[in-house]
Specification:
By secondary structure, the protein is mainly α. It is built from 32 helices and six strands.
Length: about 625
Amino acid sequence: MTSLTPFTTPSNLYPAPPSPTSIHHHLRFEQASLLIDKCQTIHHLLQTHAYLLRHGFHHHPILTFKLQRSYSSFSRLHLARTLFDQTPNPNIFSYTSIIHSYTINSLPNQAILLYHQMLENGVQPNAFTFSSLSKNCSLQLAKALHSQSLKLSLDSDAYVRTALLDAYARGGDVNSAHQLFDTMPLRNLVSSTAMITCYAKGGDLSKSQKLFDAMEERDVVCWNVMIDGYTQHGLPDQSLALFREMLSAKDVRPNEVTVLSVLSACGQLGSLESGKWLHSYIEANKIKFSVRVGTALIDMYCKCGSLDDACSVFDKIVDKDVVAWNSMIVGYAIHGLSQEALQLFSRMRGWSFQPTDITFIGVLNACSHAGLVEEGRGFFRLMKDEFGIEPKIEHYGCMVDLLGRAGLLEEAYELVKNMEIEPDPVLWGSLLGACRLHKNIALGENIAEFLVDKGLANSGTYILLSNIYAAAGKWEEVARVRTMMKDSGIRKEPGCSLIEVSNKTHEFVAGDLKHPESKEIYDMLEELNGLLKAQGYSPKTEIVLHDIKEIEKERVLEVHSEKLAIAFGLISTRPGTTIRIVKNLRVCSDCHAVTKLISKITGRKIILRDRSRFHHFVDGSCSCRDYW
């Protein structure tokens, strides 16, 4: 958020200093003031402070105020506070300056203590005091400050109202923020941006966009708020569209915050072409290659299926932090390179980095994707016993997935029942999925019945239970479960697949006929079907969980969304080009088998990202080794 009130030192902040007894003394005062203003390092500031002490200026109110403010800017709050404590009878400007120092350094409690001290000493707060206190404050404190500003008749001040609006926005109190904003006689860039932030944080992006469109002046901050709002609420297409609009706007340039949001949007979409272009833009426009930017690039490349690019960026980060290491470990894990993930974890520990809960999510995922049961058990114990990290729901989810896919259903079930935290529907769904995989109808029924009774059932619960019954040929039970699902008002999430071609994202659903090149796509599918059968392919009709004829099951399989996306990729890109698909659900066994054969028949590498992991198909084989 743009700073509300940059502190200045106008001549009327303090009573005029005593008239200098000589021109020489006056020149030294001016020189000292100029030296403080020009200090660019803490070392220079300390030297300047020593100069003031030598020449008897250390008690001069203006110079002490400027020194105090400069120490704060270098995050030397203890020195700023020492100067403040040595100031005789500090006035409102001294108090406000030190309060401001504490709040911008995220120390609101110390700022409030100083505010109480100020009131006890009879110093009356002003608008700048309130705007300073409102920075980084809690919602409860914002309401108390608002109340006091009303008592002191400061609530009409533009700075105070904007600061309070910002505090309400950060605290998620949309109604209070909206009331303040609506009663502002003059709205400035900062107040409008604060209101946009409030709407965006609450997910009301239509109001954010409407207010954003109405602004006559926009800076990089308000652009960033809107772009990030779309990214954070799962609307990456709109985020990228707004970023392109920003690039054509006058007098505004993307900064580090912008590219962090846009890289996240590229990762959500799996849009490698856009991500690579943005990487080039960062380099060409000399946006600082910070650890945060480097980590965002790693995350984007991993999610877009380009692990080589992610590794290259990781190697270029000079001062890696634990977040960068985590991103690379998680990247290896989701691509099925489990040994590489575990080796990187060992390297990280060798560099004396302290693992975090995110580290162990990556490590346990790596074990799960490779079926490393013993290793996973060991890491799960290590997390708590050696590093004192209490397992979260995500860690339990990794362990349930690991044990469940390995067929250790009873152990997984016992782990869930004995958890110290309440299991969520996602975790139960993972266990249900394992029951379907290993055809354990009894346990699946018990779990589903429990979830329905507790009101925890979601679409996945009903679908998995229905699939368990269907796989066993219990069609009456399938019909009963589907009726229960319909009566509960829960709808199945439709499967869709995305493919990016020439910087444009194309989306397909099963049996899709909406694409302008549908005829060519289905012609390619027909051609592929002939080539697949020549390779000995037989459709896995047993996974079609409907009581229909065999020929109809084959037709259902032929038009799955990922097959349509692959066909479109084949007709839209040059021979030899890698095809990259993003699917919102887990790939089915038939599509997996078909994609392996297509990679062999066409000589194409096909990278498919599903809900669980990446599959790299090359020359008839998959990186998952058929364990997913």
